[in-house]
Fold this protein.
Amino acid sequence: MSQTVLAEAPVEPAQPAPSLRRPRLPRWAPLGLAALAAALGTGVGLLAGLESRLQWGLMAALLYVVLTVTVAGAVEGTRQARDRLATSVIWVCFLVAVVPLASLLWETVARGVQVLDGYFLTHSMNGVITMEPGGGIYHALIGTLEQVGLATLIAAPIGLLTAVYLVEYGTGRLAKAVTFFVDVMTGVPSIVAGLFVLSFWIIILDFGYSGFAGAMALAILMMPIVVRSTEEMLRLVPNELREASLALGVPKWKTILKVVLPTAVGGITTGVMLAVARVAGESAPVLLLVFGSAQINANPFEGAQSSLPYYIYEQWANGNAPSYDRAWAAALVLIAFVMILNLVARGIARWKAPKH
């Protein structure tokens, strides 16, 4: 019997399976690249003789994006580099928006605390020479509280009822017309609202300048914000809650009052506070309707009043160092006033929110 001898083919060493995971940059890479970009931007700015640090920051931001994309493309691949590009651009845009705000806040605090004290908060400008230190914002603070409070009492109920109508009852041409006019009012400049109240309340009806006239103009500016924010919050309430209440025989008006509104009270309160913050810094209606006063006037329905925005404008227009200091201090008080309102709104929203 013949035997066939088969030659064994040489066995090649097994190749390692390709890895499914590409190399990744370490977690500290974004911070390291940001530090490198800042150093390069500063160096380029110094070498080019640029005095503006804003230009240094813009160059650093551009270098950060370029470095991030380049390094990510070389290490992680094209796909991940695109993701890094989008992330870095978002961070740069965030910083571009936040840095001026932080700078303005820091400048306001640094200059405002030089004058802000108990005397400043409890005295008016009556009899004070504007070119000399002294005086306070008590009259302007009283005016702002009364005008914004009256505007809220006018705008909040009307805005809330309008939103309830649009969400719960609104159908047909009337609802479309209301929605259209709310959208139009959202873009109305504050000076137009002031001119409307001036022509109707003061010129046609022959009422005098007062804090109430300014409050009506502020209410016009508040209404569309209250309507839109409340409308969105009411639409977020699940329909199952309404259907369950109606299935138990509860009338629709009572369902809205006892179920829908308590469920959305947190968002509604936040929307009202946003509207208050929107109008608290308005000066154009005050210039036209309230007319300003250096004396304390606690009656918003008669006589000229002041307000914090008007006080800031008035002091800055005086053009001297003591007036500038008072303007910065008043701006700091206005910022604190808006922040306190937002904190109060958060507290009310938590307190009134339905318990799970």
Summary: The chain has a mean pLDDT of 84.
